[in-house]
Write a structure and sequence with these properties.
The protein is α+β, with helices and mostly antiparallel strands and 290 residues long. The protein contains seven helices and 16 strands. The strands form four sheets. Strands 8, 9, 12, 13, 14, 15 and 16 form a seven-stranded antiparallel sheet that branches. Helix 1 runs parallel beside helix 6 (256-274) and helix 3 (150-157) packs across helix 4 (159-182). The longest helix is centred in the middle third of the chain and has 24 residues, at 159-182. It is globular. Bound molecules: ligand PZK.
């Protein structure tokens, strides 16, 4: 992706995002339109996907700042770039699960527990948990993050910090999951990234409550006992499955109807959650912050 400003130096890449340094205190987080499925970034982009994710993150940052401060300084006019405060990121992924899916479901089937949380017998895939649980993970440089228990996470960040992080992550999830549920979307789980500012205070960073960092399911039609369709990526997954692709690099090009249908799902998620027309966001990204 073209560097956003000539003075900014590239400091990192995610699968679908780039990070640039603006100065000693500030970073620029740029969300591309790339999409990944089955852990592979596809050669075809979804127009405006990065803007949807950036707008959603901004929306949530503006509405959760009384729960925990966040790194957002400003949204750029391009709608896909976030100026943010530079933090010292914690070395764990802060995952909260309200439903039993993905690696949480796998761990439960294997051990009856997730990250040391003993769960009732007889739960089925995608079932709502008795209460949301904090299920931290390591940050893998390559491959998959590994779920870890309280003791392992506390070795990395300390016991006191662990308790603080767990309480904040659960409060953020409860807020966003309730908000989303009122708008017909189940927030099955979410991954948050917290860091410390220069005074050692916890600050929410990265992206928050986007379809790339969370599992979104449609509330109508939700049923436990199977894998609910992904709100955003289901057309892409179905198309990829129909090809018999082996899920190794490179992934397939997507046909126009799959691209259009997927873009529509991202825009629908944005509009349902924010109550703001996506065109209004494109005209002025600041609308999500008010
Ligand atoms: C930071 N990442 C992950 C995200 C990438 C990499 N506010 C911050 N301060 C310091 N570091 C980070 C952040 C944030 N957010 C985030 N790595 C470092 C990441 C997107 C693209 F290349």
């Amino acid at each position: 992706m073209r560097p956003p400003v000539t003075e900014a130096s590239h400091v990192g890449s995610g699968k679908v995002r780039e990070l640039y340094a603006l100065d000693d205190e500030r970073l620029l987080l740029v969300a591309s339109d790339r999409i990944s499925t089955f852990d592979v970034v596809l050669p075809t982009e979804i127009p405006d996907k990065g803007r949807v994710l950036t707008g959603l993150s901004g929306f949530w940052f503006a509405r959760t700042r009384d729960l925990v401060p966040n790194h957002l300084i400003a949204l750029r006019e391009d709608g896909r770039s976030t100026e943010c405060r530079r933090l010292e990121m914690l070395p764990i992924e802060c995952v909260v699960r309200g439903y039993l899916s993905g690696s949480g479901w796998k761990d439960y089937v294997a051990t009856g527990e997730v990250c040391g949380h003993a769960l009732p017998d007889g739960l089925v895939e995608s079932q709502q948990l008795p209460r949301p649980i904090f299920t931290p993970a390591t940050k893998a440089q390559t491959g998959h993050d590994e779920n870890i228990d309280r003791a392992t996470a506390a070795e990395l960040i300390g016991e006191e910090r662990f308790d603080e992080v767990e309480a904040i992550a659960l409060a953020l999830y409860a807020f966003a999951a309730d908000y989303a549920h009122e708008r017909g979307i189940i927030l099955a789980d979410t991954k948050l990234e917290l860091g410390l500012d220069d005074e050692g205070r916890l600050v929410l960073g990265d992206e928050a409550f986007t379809p790339d960092s969370s599992r979104f399911w449609r509330a109508d039609g939700y049923a436990a006992g199977a894998t609910p369709p992904s709100f955003d990526k289901q057309f892409v997954r179905d198309y990829c499955e129909s090809l018999g692709w082996d899920k190794t690099y490179p992934g397939p090009e997507l046909p126009d109807d799959v691209v259009a249908g997927t873009r529509a799902r991202y825009v629908e998620a944005f509009e349902r959650l924010t109550g703001i027309e996506f065109d209004a966001y494109l005209a002025d990204p600041g609308v999500v912050l008010r």
